[in-house]
Amino acid sequence: MELKSTNISFTNMVSVDERLTYKQHPQDPEKTVLTQEAIITVKAVSLSSYLEGLMASSISSNANKGREAMEWVIHKLNTKIEDLAVSARGSIRTPMAAAAALVEKK
Hints:
Layout: E1 2-6, E2 14-24, E3 32-42, H1 48-105
Antiparallel strand pairs: 1-2, 2-3
């Protein structure tokens, strides 16, 4: 899957074209490889290289925050799923133990 975005504000001064590509990991189908790239073009400004560097740093920092947020959500979901599985296993065992006790009394 590929996602593309472009800024819509200040386009007369700067353009940021970003592309995110999600692919299945070649060795582990349970994992996803995310590739993120951004092209920054500063227009008609004497400090263009300075602004490009500043924006690249900001985009990189935000990309790391986004990745960390996704990993946090995935971890929380996995924890909830495991809690539900443990709870379900416990719910099944309780009636089975009661049934076994009834059989033993007979």
